[in-house]
Amino acid sequence: MATALQKIDEAEFARPEPLPLVGEMVRGAEYPLDSLGEMIAAAVSAISRKVMVPTALAANSVLSACSLAVQPYVNVGLPTDQDRPVSLFFVSVAESGDRKSTTDDIATSEIGTFQRDLQEQHARMEHELMARKLAWDTSKSEALTQTKKRGREAIEQALKDLGPRPQDPMTPVITVRVGTTQGLIKQFEHARPSLGLMSDEGGSWLGGYGLSEDSRLFTVATLSDLWDGKPVQRLTAGEGSTSLYGRRLTFHMMIQPILAGRLLGDAEFKGQGFLSRLLVAQPESLAGTRFVDPHAPVDPSIAADIDAFGRRLALIIRSQLPMDEETRALKPKRLPLSPMASQLWWAFANEMEERIGKGGDLADVRGFATKLPEQAARIAAVLAVFQHGLKVEEIEDEMLANGISVARYYLSEAVRLFGVASPNPILMDAQVLSDWLRDKWKENLINVGAIQNFGPSQLRKKNADQIKEIVAALVRHDHLSDRLPSGGMVSGKKVRECWRVQVRG
Prior knowledge:
Helix 5 runs parallel beside helix 12 (300-317) and helix 10 crosses helix 15 (397-421). Helix content is 51%, strand content 11%. It has helices spanning 4-13, 38-51, 55-70, 100-107, 109-147, 152-162, 181-190, 202-206, 216-228, 257-264, 267-271, 300-317, 339-355, 366-388, 397-421, 425-439, 448-454, 464-476; strands at 74-77, 83-85, 89-93, 175-176, 194-199, 232-236, 240-244, 248-255, 278-281, 333-336, 445-446, 488-490, 493-495, 499-500. The protein is an alpha/beta fold.
């Protein structure tokens, strides 16, 4: 039997359980599948069942494909007398192994096919264009020789009769996976005026040059301008600034939760209003439940629904672009809301306004909620064009109600995720380090140098002071002990400063 003194000693020196670094996530709402319209809903359901992914993950991939297809052809006419793009910006949050890539590949299959067709056509046109340019150059030389002695007016008339030199065809690019913002703008100059920045490896984009300290604000500002439908600026050393009008961009990044925390918690992104433009979904993973009966018959409706969606997508995206042939600026038609839809829109907008006020339940996501009525109208426009074709003349109230229903889902995700994921980025780094210590580090002690040399890749470039901030967070949450005053042995070397690991796998 333990003595009273022993009990006191045990209580005093017992280590508490490590505290969680990041708030525990509540379960997300069910995705409003029925609000997507018959064909899109069927495709989302089919992909979800085929790949065994959550409905929200399949919906983000399908809707981003629809947005990319529809955005060059229409602007939505809001009841505020504003004409707005219908481009949508999605972020899908899922762990590695949650089949993000497969889902996106199926949803965008027809876009990939069209891009390959354009590439083959472009290769054929290059040979023809070379011959046409050579013929034009020869004709120009002959015309100048014949008119040289007849004076300036004769030369000008000869050049006018000759017409402009044949232009290079548009670069056969529809989707851009990764790269710099300047690279994206260059594509807008030479490729189609409607593009998709879509990547199943969003971490490459987040960690790339485009979001480095020197470029991040320019990147975010450019993406926000494209969402708004503003002209984008191309900066060149020789020519200065060039404005590109009538460009459209769909955005879909698929990233892992730890990176989502960094994105959604970025104060500069929030301050620039970029986060409020994102439709984010982080459904619960199905990993561990995706059992297959190899003897079960294949449901023929899965392939049929995916094929029907693909045919409709191909029909829209292969239509002639409404653009200025010289500047390649898009000239989308105006798609207004019907009178009944306008009334519904105003009611939704007023609801959002009331809820973002002081003491309102949406005060913490004010920026997102403020843009939600426009997001709802954009979603409704995409659904309407996809369902009724490019000849649709207005958005009916039923279709807007569907857009609002889908928008409300992303609002629930914003409330759920922005509160959990947005805290201190140091805590997000601390979580990464804690996971690494538990799963990878086999020693009882750790120091700054070991973290910089052997730790998680995203922490190795940080300086000693930054590492110590992260370590301090782990100490506060009992993932590490207080600094050992006498140092210790780490990786076979005596170090003056180290900490004892409290978390173990």
